[in-house]
Each structure stands twice: as C-alpha cells, then as structure tokens.
Amino acid sequence: MKKYSELTKEELQTLKKELEAKYKEFQSKDLKLNMARGKPCVEQLNLSMGMMDVLNGDSDLTCDDGTDCRNYGVLDGIKEAQELLADMMEVPPDQIIIYGNSSLNVMYDTIARSMTHGVMGSTPWAKLDKVKFLCPVPGYDRHFRITEYFGIEMINIPMTADGPDMDMVEELVANDDSIKGIWCVPKYSNPQGYSYSDLTVRRFARLKPAAKDFRIFWDNAYTIHHLYDDKQDNLVEILAECKRAGNPDLVYKFASTSKISFPGSGIAALASSHNNLDDIKAQLTVQTIGHDKVNQLRHVRFFKDIHGMVEHMRLHADILRPKFEAVIEILKRELGGLEIGTWTEPKGGYFISFDSLEGCAKDIVAKCKKAGVEMTGAGATYPYGKDPHDSNIRIAPSYPPLSDLITATELFALCVKLSSVNKLLSQMK
Amino acid sequence: MKKYSELTKEELQTLKKELEAKYKEFQSKDLKLNMARGKPCVEQLNLSMGMMDVLNGDSDLTCDDGTDCRNYGVLDGIKEAQELLADMMEVPPDQIIIYGNSSLNVMYDTIARSMTHGVMGSTPWAKLDKVKFLCPVPGYDRHFRITEYFGIEMINIPMTADGPDMDMVEELVANDDSIKGIWCVPKYSNPQGYSYSDLTVRRFARLKPAAKDFRIFWDNAYTIHHLYDDKQDNLVEILAECKRAGNPDLVYKFASTSKISFPGSGIAALASSHNNLDDIKAQLTVQTIGHDKVNQLRHVRFFKDIHGMVEHMRLHADILRPKFEAVIEILKRELGGLEIGTWTEPKGGYFISFDSLEGCAKDIVAKCKKAGVEMTGAGATYPYGKDPHDSNIRIAPSYPPLSDLITATELFALCVKLSSVNKLLSQMK
C-alpha cells in the first residue's frame, strides 16, 4: 500500500468514498462490542472456578500458625498468603501486607493517608500549598483520577520503550520538593505494554528527590501476566535495588490477583521497606481489624504456591495470546505501510497502545462508538483526560470473544483510515 | 452480705486476707482466658460453615440482573445483597451501598473523606482550625481511635439507659459549628447494651446543628443481635425519622454481617439519603472498581432473605445467652448487695458494662491480667483511653467456652472485691 501522505487529493477522495461505504456496512450490523476496559473474559474467569471448591463446609479454616481465618484479627494478612504473594512480587514475605480485593483501593488509601498524615512523619500533603506527581504518559487513567481527586498537580513524563524519560524524572525530583510521587506500571505497562529496562529501574532506585516524602508508586499489576512462555520481559526487582542503592524507603510496590483469580474477588498486596510498613500499619490498625482472611486462605489452597500460580497464568495466556495476535495481525494487514498510525506489540499485560495521526484519536473513538464498538475514551491515558496530541488510543483485547474482537478491530482500522483521510483532505483545503 | 462501706477496718483486713488467699489459688491455676474483645466463639463460627458450600465450582455466579459476580464492576453492591442488607437495616434497598468486610473501614473512610473533601460541598475538615465530635461514654474504643487519629477533639457525653444525654447533645450541636459528628451505637450499645429510647431517636432526628456538615454516625452494629425471642429492644428507624423531621441528610447508618456470618469475611453496608450517597459515590468510584461481589452473592445464597438471617441469629443467641446469663448470675451472687459495683443486663449485643468504685478499674483489670484473665483495658471505653472516674470495665462474654467464662468471671468478681477492700482501707489511713 502507498503511504496516505503521498496520495493525491483525488485519490484521497475516491478512497474516502470506499471507506464510507464500508463504514455504513459496519453500521448496518448493529454491533455491540466493547474493547474499553482490561476485563478478563468469561473463559478466563472459568479458569478459577476450582477456587470455589477448595474450601467447603467440612474444611478446616485454620492457618498453619493456628489462626482461625473465620474470626477477627491479623492486620497484615495470613502468613501463607504473605508467602504466596511475596513470591509473586519477588519480595521477602515479611515486607508485605495483604489487603482486600483491590490494589487500586490500596493506592488510593496510600495517597489519602499521605494527604492527612504525611509520610513517615512528614508534613501532611493537605497542609502544603502545592503537591505534584509525575505521570508517565500514556498511562493508567485510574491512577490519574486518584491524584486529580486529591488536587495533586500532574506533570506528564514521556514514555519510551525503556520506561519513562529518566533524564526528566531525575531533573524534576531533584529540584522540586513539591513533587511527592510518580505513578509507574513498570512491567507490560498500561497501555503500551512496555517494560522498564534494567537501567531505568536502577536509575529509579538511585533517584535523589528533594522531597524526603517522595515515593515511587510502583504498580506491578502485570508481574506474571506474560503472553508467551519463551518471550518474557524480566524486571530488576525495585525494592532490593532501592536497598542496594541506599534508598530503602523510596518505593511502594503494589500488586493483586485481580487478573489471576477473579477480578472482583482477588487479594491485593503492598510491599515496601519495614519503615514504610510500620508507618502504614500505624494507620491500618485504626482503619480496620483485618481483611478477608478466608479469601486469602482460599487463594493459597487453590494456587498452593507460586509454581501453581505461574502454571495458572499459562492458561490465561493461552486465551489472551490469540486475541493479542489477532489485533496486531489486523492492524498490520490493514494499516501497515500507510503511515497513519503506530502500535505496540506487547509480550504481556492487558493492552495494546495505538497512536494515530495527531488530532484523530477522539474522532476515531467516536466513529467506532457510532458503529457499535466501545473503546477506552481518547485522552483517558493522559492526566485530566487531555492528550496534547489527541493521538493515543488504548486497545483492550481481553474481553470480547475472538470473532467479535476481529470484527471490532477491523472496524477500528477502518475508522483510523477514514479519520486519517479526512484529516489529510482538510489540510489540502 | 453486708455493704463493704459498712465494714470496720478490722473486718476489711480479715476480708482482705481471705480474698488474697483466694486470689493466690487462682494464680496457681495458670489461667489463659480472654474476655477482652467482642469476638464470636468457635461454635458461633461453625454456624456459618454452610456458607462455604452454597457456591461451588459448578455454580452459576450470575446475579438476577445478569451481572457476572466474578468480574470487575458494580460500585454499590449487587442488587440481591442490597435487598438483604436493606431488610436487615430497615431501609429502602436503593439507599444502601454494600462494601467489603469491615464496617469500621467504612466509618474510617467516611471520616477520611470528610477531612480531605468535606461533606456535600462543605469545607474539608482538614482545612478548619478545629473539628470536634461528640462521644457518648462509655463507648466503643475503635470509634474513638478513628477520631483521635484525625486529630478531632472528642467531647464526652454521658450515656443513660435511654441513650446519650440529649439535652447536652442538642445544646452543643446548636451552638458550636466546629462539632461535626457524634458516634452512636444505638441498639444494644457497646459496652452497656442500652438501646436508645423512641424519644432519644426522635430528638436525634430533630437536631438543629450549627454545622451544615454535621452528621450522626449511627453504627447499628447489633441491629438483629438479640439474646431473647421474647424480650427484644426495638428502635425507631433513624433514616425515616430524619426524613419525617425534614433532616434527610443528617445521618450515616452503618452495619455489617461480621457477627452474623464470619467476623473477618462478612459484608458491610452504609445506608443514607440519596444526597449523601451521591456525595460518597463520587469518591468511591475513584477509590475502587467495586467490592467483593462473590462474597456478597455467597451471603445472599446462604441466608436467602431476612427471615433466614433472623433464624440464623437465633442460633447465635442460643450460644450467647447462657454466657451472658452466667456472667450476670455470678456478678449478682458474688457482688450483690456489697455496693462496690454496678453492671448492666443487656438483652442483646456483645457486652456487659461494669462500673467499679471510683479509681478501681485499672487495678481490677491489672489484677485479672496477673492471674491470667485478659479484660478490655480500663479506660478503653472513653476517648483518649481516659476514664475520668477510672471505674468502667467492659466485659465481653462471647469468646471463652462457658466453663472458662465462669472461672474468669469468678476471678473478676474476686478482683473487684479485693480492689474495693484496698480502696476502702486506704481511705481509712
């Protein structure tokens, strides 16, 4: 195919008519498809149904240390669950707190606590004139909503295939003590599926923030969420690296089993230094008597150990891999060589990131919606929902059945073409 | 028995020797008993083991409205759970949010949100010079710890058998706009087991607080937690009463199934006006994608409806009633007529409240501990842990087996006598 930018006005006009006819065909199909959120599909949920059988009415719900999981107590999680999630998060089991069903909730609470009580004795952020966060972009909309909700000013940091622009990060945190944190999805990032390089992680561990209460919010959401057995990204472990760098308290590491067991009914965890954990537990003990230990035990009995969990993730991969490959194949087939968009080809995680010609993303998403396919809102991958180039679109291939996904992606590619043709034509006027 | 105050010095000295001998006997028994917390006992936990069987690997985990409980979503809880807990809380099902496993966590979050974001548009409490809460005393230590943690000044309000001193409450809230809330356990109160009279509830609903963001924190923890079939306290429903009084937004009502199903793995709920719920959901949607719906469904499938839940509570009562009766019988037998202490005789809830002679509570609790019986710390039932009379002790009869409970209560009564004798003797010097 010829690059769109090399087409004449007449060629573009002819192409536009063809594309519009195809678009009308799609519209007549009355589609109702959703590629908006990173939701596991039914087949993935079915993988964990065995979890409903590991505890039954005859079960002994007692932990190895004698704790009755049914009763009150145990603030930081049962030992068995700490071990399992420590192995998953590659941290020592005594550096972890097991929470309820949502790591997002843990991140929210971490910011909320810093607002009202500061970090390890620092001034509460709510009492400061200005608090800022660094936000690698494109990034995860729900992270940005938390910081926006608390009135924290967000600064865009460009992402590269190696991670955030570390020159910029280092420079900013060293010189501005109102910068209190950075949102990171270090592995199979949301939405690009990039994993931070070893050098990036090492530079993170060696940051010299002007603010003593600066923390890296390390959302390791996709730590074992590979698509392939033979092609897996590996990450330098940040807690250990921070310790080696003499910065042991620099990072909060978050994870959950939401995309391993059941999205609404998994268990979440936070790993950090003992200093940070002590600071957190002083608050946690006021907030709750303890999280759901029966569900913690259910996870341990189902997965048994990290090997069981990793094997389980291969079953997820078997379902997700064809979906990711189908999307990428269609994008290549339909858009390859046209120079009207670029996309990532992740080896794990839940998303593919697409960048259209500047100023087309909103239009593409709107066109998809009009023809019955819901995408993540354009702009959602940027703080305040504002993509300065209006070009990034997050594609979430996990939820629709493969046949629907193929239809949806074909429509998406068509909308990209149509929107690009319109843009090029409008520039000729 | 003769009143202790009428004993001569010699009689007291003789008595002291007898009591000390008995105390030594107890010490030699190497007891390790716990009457400190309102923890259900093993037999009570066993009542809900059937809950482990209602969902199994072959179950359809779909709600009536088609929601797959295993996946993400549904911020305010599945409809079936809203209905069940609405019936339990005596509110309309559209005026309820179902949360995770801890109503304490919901109360904490409610205060935390008010600190950073205010209440329905009011100034965030963290930005005010002074925020105060009214605390009926004796009361629940975990309530007080939340307000203390946020630096909220707590004002003691004396409890009566009809509820808090409403003259004082009305006067204070009408004239001080820094008073933003009051902690209430309106039914089978913690620790006295008192239930607010109809008039008290009506006066609450008709409060005219100077602060528009004043809220009643109505912790209805023991709403269906009766000890008897034929003697049950009944409460005027506060939400409806507030609506009738033209004060629909005045109250947050909290409850959970922690002492119905499993203490660590129940479901919690908040009921309030639509205005308040909208205010809360604007925050909740930033904090989480949703709570554990599988556990919500598990509760619904197990209890089926409010009738099932009420029948289940009769089984709890059958276990708890003999324990409450044993404690009260021993207190009557050992302390009746001595005028060295008074106690409550609740018809429900989890506690018996004991008041010793002034200045004896800490000593009694310490003596119990030295002989192997852990009580709730003296002072815990007051804000800042400071009982101005050092006389209130909370007795929690639920956890120990009946035979242990009898031993523990006998020791407790002995410690009360010994401490009282010492006090009376010291006054004679």
Structure description:
The structure is a homodimer of 429-residue chains. With 429 residues, chain A is α/β, with parallel strands linked by helices. Chain A folds into 2 domains: 160 residues, Aspartate Aminotransferase, domain 1 (Alpha-Beta Complex), CATH 3.90.1150.10; 242 residues, Aspartate Aminotransferase, domain 2, CATH 3.40.640. The first copy, chain A, contains 13 helices and 13 strands. Chain A has an 8-stranded mixed β-sheet with strand order 2-9-8-7-6-3-4-5, sandwiched between helices. A 3-stranded antiparallel β-sheet of chain A has the order 10-11-13, with helices on one face. A two-stranded parallel sheet of chain A has the order 1-12. In chain A, helix 1 runs antiparallel to helix 13, helix 7 crosses helix 8 and helix 11 crosses helix 13. The radius of gyration of chain A is 23 Å and the shape is globular. The model of chain A has no long low-confidence stretch (mean pLDDT 97). The interface between A and B is large, with 57 and 58 residues.
